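Backbone shape codes
____________________
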Amino acid sequence: MKSFSYVVIIFVSMMSTHVHALQLDADSSNATLSFSGQHAGMTFTGVFERWQSQLILPPNQEPSIKAEFILASAKTGDSTYDETLPEEDWFHVEKFPVARFISTQINLLVDGYRVEGTLELKGKGLPIIFNLHNREDKLIGNFDVDRLAYGIGLESDPGAEWVSQNIRLSLTINL
């Protein structure tokens, strides 16, 4: 009976080392925040070169994710896109230099977390829900942003005839 107790104690202590609250800071030094979409039938991709986030994940009693990204740091490698994105019709970085995400709820999943929150972009805060998957030594999440709902590109492409209405944001954090 004594050996059974030791086995239970060892098992419980092993389990507790694997179930701990994950707290980390992420930015462009240890993670990538990218975006992609279609323009005139061609795929474009880009990254935010300057951003930061703080993640406190379950089972922490008060999980949260807070992120800010500098919109002027959006780069695609295409000079036409890179010059257009900061303009008033697109990100309007002069008036809205920073976008923010603040979680409202985070739930533990088998392979990661379900995250709900508000994405504030170009002065509008709208709800976003996505899964943040734990893949070996990375956290990976993707979600679509309806650019028209945020007033992005409304003057030049209000019908999303040239630039896709939904822009995919992808986050990869190295653990």
